[in-house]
Amino acid sequence: QKAIAVMTSGGDAPGMNSNVRAIVRTAIWKGCRAYVVMEGYEGLVKGGPEYIKEFGWEDVRGWNSDGGTNIGTARCMEFKERWGRLLGAQHLIEAGVDALIVCGGDGSLTGADLFRGEWPSLIKELFENKRISEDQYTKYKHLNICGTVGSIDNDMSTTDATIGAYSSLDRICKAIDYIEATAYSHSRAFVVEVMGRNCGWLALMAGIATSADYILIPEKPSSSKDWRDQMCDIVSKHRSKGKRTTVVIVAEGAIAADLTPITPDDVHKVLVDKLQLDTRTTILGHVQRGGTAVAFDRILATLQGVEAVNAVLDSTKDTPSPLIAINENKITRKPLIESVKLTKSVAAAIQAKDFKKAMDLRDTEFVE
Ligand code: ATP
Questions:
Q1: For labelling, which of 59, 72, 120, 209 has a CA lying 20 to 30 Å from the CA of 193?
Q2: What is the DSSP secondary-structure string of 20-37?
């Protein structure tokens, strides 16, 4: 009987609870034992029944409508060290777990794949140091790993959507709708900063959905003109046609054509100095992560949870770790490590301001 554990790791994202719920229930449905690891990799490093808990069917009841992650998440520096992963391996074996599904971002999934790759040498060391028995050494020869992507940023290559991104987008749109009402009343301009790190997806989609006047994202700095002139031309045109509101959305990683970062303060200053607009700035911050997941994320997380358990049960020691994705509305399996590598290459190209390379890499598809 296989024992499958699930953990959430990295930044929390709405829909993670649906993913955990689906994994726990599918595992039980398929005749496996289901476990949760509390507090991400920290729970693996600390170990014991307080952190690695067997879960039953009822333990995840009602989780579809809970925001955040009920099993906790953390950033764990110890797991980046070999000794931390050695403890993690020992604790999983002590709990009797032989498969791990990690729901997190690229960092968490890199850690998961590294853990799987190191597993034979970790358990050898544990056995040689008498930290596990010969029976355990023989029984836990392989660790199956599978990744599901929980991230509000929608920044993972090879999948069309990450768990949490559409919920965050919905929250941003609602917040901008509220802002529109007050902006209209006072005929004001608002600069709204949204999350996304190296990825402008949240800013771009929110801009389309709320018909923002101007959007600044990391991937496409205004090239034809200085962004200040271009933004002022567009905003002036809108105002000249009687528009009483101005909304400019700034992604947290936005940069200018001269490759310098653009902050909400920079945008605010331009709107005041050049257009004399009564301007306010709103940094949406953590409200973008909070609250319940939208239906799409609940469904995505549930379908991907089912597929994650299926993938674990299909895995052999020679199968590369899978990442559960969605492509053209179908739940798919992608090679985890290649997906993570590609995601990191895109982020590195953006940081190196090589936008063409970033775009080319984003369009890369795997032939499986
Ligand atoms: P988000 O996209 O929300 O930031 P993430 O999964 O990328 O999520 P990270 O902080 O990068 O978030 O990683 C979460 C945890 O995963 C880390 O605290 C660490 O425990 C583990 N981890 C990340 N990178 C590695 C690595 N290279 N080796 C081992 N463990 C890692």
A1: 72
A2: HHHHHHHHHHTT-EEEEE
| Close Cβ partners of 108 (under 8 Å, ≥ 6 residues apart) | 9, 10, 40, 41, 102, 147
Does 318 participate in catalysis according to the annotation?
no
CA angle 79, 80, 84 (to 5 degrees): 40
Q: Reduced to 3 states, what is the DSSP secondary structure of residue 327?
A: strand
- Identify the pLDDT of residue 215: 95
Identify the band that residue 356 occupies on the pLDDT scale cut at 50, 70 and 90.
Answer: confident
How many angstroms separate the CA atoms of 279 and 72, rounded?
39
Show Cβ contacts of residue 303 under 8 Å, excluding neighbours closer than 6 positions.
Answer: 22, 331
User: Which residue's entry shows tokens 């969605």?
Assistant: 326
Terminal-to-terminal C-alpha distance of the chain: 30
Q: Residue 197: what pLDDT?
A: 87
Structure tokens at 354: 């090589």
The rounded mean pLDDT for the chain is: 93
Query: Which protein residue's CA is at the shortest distance from atom 26 of ligand 1?
Result: 111
Positive or negative torsion for Cα 201, 203, 206, 212: negative
Tens of pLDDT along 41-81?
999 999 999 999 999 999 999 999 999 999 999 999 999 99
Tell me, what's the pLDDT at 276? 97
pLDDT higher than 50, residue 368: no
Are the CB atoms for 265 and 281 separated by under 8 Å? yes
Closest C-alpha to ligand 1, atom 2: 105
Which of 12, 153, 155, 213 is flagged as catalytic?
153
